[in-house]
User: What shape does this take?
Amino acid sequence: MSADCARPATARISVTLTDFHEIGRERGCSRADIELTDTGNGKVSQARVNDPIVVSAEVYLEFFVHARKGDRYAYMPVGIGFREEVAGIERKQVAKNRGDHRDPLGRAAFPLRTIAAKGDTTQLTLFDANPEPGVFEFSLVIQRSDGLLSVIDPQVRNRGVNF
Assistant: This one.
């Protein structure tokens, strides 16, 4: 975290399942509408629903997963994994430009990851602490109320950098 004593802002992200694909049974990720519902005092942005989430400062990201209207199932986040993306440029060139300070699994970028149940709602919270620009592909693991698992694949961009 930053050197000052103030707690970083918190941004909220709503994930609404629109097409569930069970892991191992169906190809691809589930589809969902990803919408930034609270910008964390302007530290996080999104141009429109399903666009990448752009983070411009240290911030907590809270994910809430919902069923779409009329869906008979409930959903909850049960895990998350990260992979640093390099688009359009060879990894060697990126390493040269950034001094080879890569974070392929997002351990430095997202050092705190917690899941907390609050009544009927489960929230997954991340701390985005990455001081380096970067684009991360992340896999949000979702469990449906019948026990089946799925993955959602949105993007987080730190400091709005495009490679």
Q: What stands out?
A: The helical segments are 91-98. Residues 91-98 form the longest helix (8 residues). The radius of gyration is 16 Å.
